[in-house]
Amino acid sequence: MLKAKIIFALFYDLLLLLAVWFVAAIPFVIWQGEGFETQPMTLLAFQIYLLGVSYIYLSYFWLQTGQTPGLRTWKLRLVRTDNYLLTRRDATVRFVLSLFSIVTLGFGWVWLWFSKNNQSLHDQLAFTHIVDASDSAK
Fold first, then answer.
1. pLDDT at residue 15 greater than cutoff 90
2. Parallel, antiparallel, or unpaired for β 76-80 and 128-132?
3. SS3 annotation, 19-74
4. Bridge partners for 132 per DSSP
5. 3-class DSSP assignment, residue 133
6. What is the pLDDT of the chain when averaged over all its residues?
7. In 3D, which of 122, 56, 119 has the Cα closest to residue 94?
8. What are phi and psi of 128, to 5 degrees?
9. Is the predicted pLDDT of residue 106 greater than 90, yes or no?
């Protein structure tokens, strides 16, 4: 059940992140003007900009409460393996490893289904895990 909740939270957060990207793209598109996507360096700068926006968005929630909106909806929390909230270093490591998980066509998320302790590959490597927050005191 926990694995399914983690995947549902992932998709929920992805939908919200798409909305954040849309809003964040507006100033960049206005600044660069029409046809910026035909210029390779500008397109690379745009992609790096969106990665930065993603990092700020996700790490904000990971550092404050351990709950992105998707995790909060499904009553889950991201914590270190010692059950403390992530530090800036932990959040950065997890974000970078999550990118590698995406680049490998989601292999890190597929790993979740074979993990005995409900950890994706990037969570195992970053020493983090997602726990059920519904039974913890508020």
1. yes
2. antiparallel
3. HHHHHHHHHHHHHHCCCHHHCHHHHHHHHHHHHHHHHHHHHHHHHHCCCCHHHHHC
4. 76
5. coil
6. 93
7. 122
8. -125, 165
9. no
